[in-house]
Fold MFS transporter.
Amino acid sequence: MSVAALRDHVFGYLNDRFFYGWVILSVAGLGLFTSGPGQSHTFSVFVDPISADLGITSTTIASAYGTATLAAALCLPVAGRLVDRFGPRRMAGAIVFLLGLACLFFGAAANFVWLALGYGFLRFFGQGALMLTSANLTSRWFARKRGTAMGLMALGFGASIAVHPPLAQFLIETVGWRQAWTYLGLLTWVQMLPAIWLLVIDSPEEKGLAPDGESRPRPEAAAAVKNSKEEDIPGLTLSEALRTPTFHLIWFSMASIAMLVTALHFYQVKIFTAQGLDPAVAAWVFPITAGTMVAMMPVVGRVLDRLKTRHALALALLVQASALLMVTQVNNVPTAIFYAALFGLNNACSMTLFGYIWPRYFGRRHLGSIQGTGQMIMVVGASLGPLPIGYAFDTFGSPSLMIQGLSVYPAACALLALLIRTPAAIPVEEHLE
């Protein structure tokens, strides 16, 4: 039996029992988990072993990492166009295979140039392309329940934060940092490639379904969907989206979230210690942030399905502004715990909005191109985020005034978000508009 025939058999068996989109959602969540080798929380464990082995400073490693992240971001629009052209199943298979090779390549790094290239490959295939493809796949299968679906999908990222750093540390202590990357590459292939080959179907229309499974209880609707064509799926092209005020209001707001979340992650320990806390306390509150994020992502998803989207985005931006103000007030354990929980809510908002907002306003037909461009802007923002706080540390000795000033950015975006409207060509349920 061919892989395609086996995939059709699995689809028929499972879809007779429940909407197959939940299977797709599970694979997409696994995709976010599998992106772990390309994420910052995994890299952080390897900084000291790489520095000692290659004889380069942590600053040099950070420079290679930042440059690679920026270069990977600039390639994301190309990845998005390829997803539109070949479909998320083929692209996800290729991306996961190349991510595994990138792990093997990185583990063999012998010098700075090799290391920088390895960072670039891992950031592009893991943090960039695989996350983009997973979100794209979920967006194709869910519309009315997209917020809930995105919140559940993002649990895969929370699981990666919980699993990959301690796993990487165990591997480093057991087999060394180079061999650790070999194991991470092999695990990437084992945990993701079979699921892609056997379970992933690009869109519900491919099987005569509609997003959310709404055609299943109505046979006449199912027949209509089955006879529909790909060109009947609503969606703006990238050039059309770029000509709307909506696109620019969204990227400006989402860049705020990406930029400042990265800055707070990057400097949390340094900010806390500058305000009188022990470094151990600063490190200890990370699990509180992660736990809050995991707990709140499904809640945020359900809110997105029920509130007007512009109002939900405005609330997320106000949470971001509040987190920035709160971090400057942390001076003891209780305030650190409160901030960690607030920052976890902020991360839940950013992760859920990441995959939700682009198909919500621009449709599914050319989602890869639009999402790739939007994600590129967000990653560029993330690469710039730590700079103003670092400047404040170096120039003023304290970042508090700079951070408080930066809080004006998301607060202003919250007001601008209220101006966002769905382009006329995109159908939307009235309660979301």
User: Anything to note?
Assistant: The two ends are 47 Å apart (CA to CA). Residues 112-141 form the longest helix (30 residues). Residues 64 and 76 are 19 Å apart (CA to CA). The chain is about 75% helix and 0% strand.
